[in-house]
Amino acid sequence: MKNNVKLARVSLSLTQEQLATRVAATRQTIGLIEKGEYNPSLQLCIAIAKELNKTLDELFWEVENK
Amino acid sequence: MKSWLAFFIPSDEYKEKRMLYFLSEGAILLLLSLVVMVICNQFYPMNTGLALLIPIAIFLFYVMGRYILSGIEYTDIATETAYKKEIKRILNKIGGIVVIYALLYLLIVGFPANNTEWIDFIGLLLVVGVLWFFTSFISLKRSYKKNRELL
Q1: Which residue of A has its CA nearest to B72?
Q2: Which of A11, A40, B46, B124 qualifies as a FRET site for B13, CA 20 to 30 Å off?
Q3: Which residue in A40, A2, A3, A1 sits closest to A23, CA to CA?
């Protein structure tokens, strides 16, 4: 699943490890989510969105560009 | 989800999901191996001890093998410094446990009486130590490679 987690994380100058600690996940899990290789649970999506000060739509909703 | 299995499963959700897959696959293989052995037993009666040991070995080797090769054990090792540090930590841990085991064995069981007993004692320690290091090393290497790709 494509998402904007990496962009949002980098804009806040957070490392994968820092975000992982804040959402009680591992660095590997954050990396997999950013690469779109793992679809997180709704609970983890919400935790990430809260930490990155974004809505779920902004992070995970796919919008096709016309 | 409430389950007694949660006690043995990692808290990280990706690791948890992978582990549940490995355990489920292992359980299905165990069931299949039992079915095969029930059928085989009709034609070639099997030794009970062996028949019980084979499914357990299949389950344990499968789950352990999948876990080691999946690269999910060392989730935070992504730099060369951390990788080298972890190898040292593994060596220290295995070395420490081997020494403690050897001391406890000598204290509880006593000193081996002859050459054969010495070979058995040292051989067991060497095989366990080397095998443990080898599996940990493969797991670390796979984890490091996977984590590097995710940076």
Answers
A1: A28
A2: A11
A3: A40
